[in-house]
Design goal:
Blueprint (H helix, E strand, L loop, with lengths): L1 H22 L7 E5 L5 H9 L4 E4 L2 H7 L8 E4 L8 H7 L2 E5 L2 H10 L4 E6 L16 H8 L5 E7 L12 H18 L5 E3 L6 H6 L4 E4 L1 H4 L4
Parallel strand pairs: 1-2, 1-8, 2-3, 3-4, 4-5, 5-6, 6-7
Bound molecules: pyridoxal-5'-phosphate.
The site of pyridoxal-5'-phosphate (PLP) has 13 residues, from strand 8 and helix 9.
Length: 225
Amino acid sequence: MSEEFAERLNQVEQRIAAACEKAGRSRDSVRLLAVSKTKPPAAVREAVACGLRMFGENKVQEAQSKIPMCPSGLEWHLIGHLQSNKAKIAAQYFQMVHSVDSLKLLQALESHAGRTLPVLLQVNISGESAKFGMKPEDVSDVIDAANQMQKCEVHGLMTIPPFSPDPEKTRKHFSSLRALRDQLQEETGTPLPELSMGMSHDLEVAIQEGSTWVRIGTDLFGKRG
Ligand SMILES: *Cc1c(COP(=O)(O)O)cnc(C)c1O
């Protein structure tokens, strides 16, 4: 079982390294977030045994029961939609939130965080089928608001493009997110180094377009039930 995980991790690592090389980027410019949602603590322990330390969960309730059963000292990232009324719990369990999709949520996290909380702003870059994410034209005001906060720090942008079996069809959404990031850095004077984009089937294209966090579930842990 553990060998199986090691083999899958090896494959993912090779794909990341190859994509970095092709894009002329260093391997350490891209972080691998292991998406453990729906998987038991035993799966997390296997991943930890293989050297992984950063995990992504999409539901606060699941994280709340899973994280205490996992090894301590890991980094937990929230990657799913969060309701403002759960911001307090989220701020307790997560070291970073990739999925801040409204000013209201950012304000709720600010009021509950006990320390510096790095966040990414989730953008609905395709303007279509994405259920969550702010409109590109709304992001600038949220960054300005965050710059007045004490605890929440915006480190960059995140997106979940509409699914396409052909990763090349997703490329334009990744490049749009990067272009928006470049524009917002200019406009707001805020450094936005992080781009959370790319999942199991499209990590190569995402890395070519500038991703700094790939969020990988299926290709590490196997299919979800
Ligand atoms: C589930 C999930 C992932 C991982 O997707 P895979 O295709 O299994 O790699 C990445 N990002 C988010 C936001 C998710 O919810």
